[in-house]
Amino acid sequence: QVQVVESGGGMVQDGGSLRLSCTTSDRTFINYAMGWFRQAPEKEREFVAAISGNGGNTIYAESVKDRFTISRDNAKRTVYLQMNSLKPEDTAAYYCAANARTWPYAYRYWGQGTQVTVSS
Predict the structure, then answer these.
(1) Which end of the chain is more exposed for a tag (fewer CB within 10 A), N or C?
(2) Mapping DSSP to helix (H, G, I), strand (E, B) and coil, where does residue 29 land?
């Protein structure tokens, strides 16, 4: 079973920044796209961003485009989500998704989530 562990969540003020990290135990990490999703209270889980195995392709939800950046370090089996200009509506639990089955929305493995809270 592949383990997926997120870190880096926390509380930040409106306009602030955070960087999330996600590390996986999968040694075939480089072969798969990775993604980030989020879920706010009483809302459906939604797609945030995804990155291809070699990092050459990225895709973002319209709501985070130009503010968030997804990247990966294949040597460390880690994917990052740099979040700038954070807004209160970005408050959610953020989930890392590993080993895409179908680009960019379907994944085999999920982390437990890390909470991001943006105060106004």
Answers:
(1) N
(2) helix
